[in-house]
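User: Some background: our group keeps a shared notebook of sequences we're curious about, and every so often someone picks one and asks for a predicted structure to add to the entry. Today it's my turn. The entry only has the sequence so far, pasted here. Could you supply the structure so I can complete it?
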Amino acid sequence: MSETWNKRTKAVHGGTARSGWGEVSEAIFLTQGFVYDSAEAAEARFIEAGPDEFIYARYGNPTVAMFERRLAMLEGAEDGFATASGMAAVSGALTSMLRAGDHVVAAKALFGSCLYVLEEILTRFGVDVTFVDGTDLDAWCRAIRPGTKCVFFETIANPTLEVVDIPAVAALAHAVGALVVIDNVFATPVYSRALEQGADVVVYSATKHIDGQGRTLGGIILGSTEFIRKTVEPYMKHTGGSMSPFTAWVMLKGLETMELRVRAQTASALALTEALQGHAKLGRVAYPGHPSHPQYAQAQRLMGAGGTVIALDLGGQAEAFRFLNALQIVLISNNLGDAKSIITHPATTTHQRLSAEQREALGIGQGLVRFSVGIEDTSDLIADVMQALEAV
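Assistant: Of course. Here's the predicted structure to add to the notebook entry:
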């Protein structure tokens, strides 16, 4: 029956496993280990544990398993492995499958920590990484070669909001046997159809829209059962990047309201974009859900919406700082996907590690700000942004 449920129903009920007490809210199993009936039972479980048999919290836990199953149902994946953070999901998905001599092709417009994993960590251990303009299919075609192990990109790039053509890049990758690994945070599980569009592995920072209320760090890797259990799980359980049971419970609660929050945030993001079109203090307003965005048609085809994040260009750092400091409702912080509206200046925060030349190549100018739209009243947000622009 659950296979026929729509996403909102899956987000509330999917993967629930009740204890003998019949609780309504999912139980938190705050235990690091599990008891066996006998030494023989312990031996058997270490040889091969069943789907509802657990050994150690680093390997799996009933509350964490509920979160994994629920999000796998939402995404249309066979399986998932929950991680301690979004970056544990990104690094775990890539590092678990790669070894010295492998070749990766990645979009160059990525979150700063993703760039660090690709540029610094993987290359340190002998992985060959080629970066391309994610919106240029010819660049992908030139870079992907026989023997390429995987391609990696963000569905919507952070913070420039470029949209990558998932089916087209996936076709190029699959033609040489490469896996397609996608960081899908900005698309959100609400709008995502990444797996049916050609992705093999999808990763989320559950810290963002899934929790959506600024409480906990978490992530998840989603894909085939074979990839999750044969490649990801051995790596993650031995390196220690698994999610805690309490975090999993918080994430389960977040999933119950995620679609309501994300759709409200998306509607406000579009209304803000429309209100800001042509404003004299802004050089550019970028939002994938507005016709002014260069990949608008592609965003509609892939997701049917533009997500919850807007990028604004105020010209320079001084103007951007004056704008941020004048905001009264919108908070200055470097998270996104939160119920509260949050704004940051990427050049001096999330992407400050990059050189000025790298930031310029990525389109991260000193005037660029990333605006994650929350669930506050839309008219209040518009009024707050308009009064802050007066300070620029």
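Suggested note for the entry: The chain has a mean pLDDT of 95. The chain has two domains: 2-254, 258-389.
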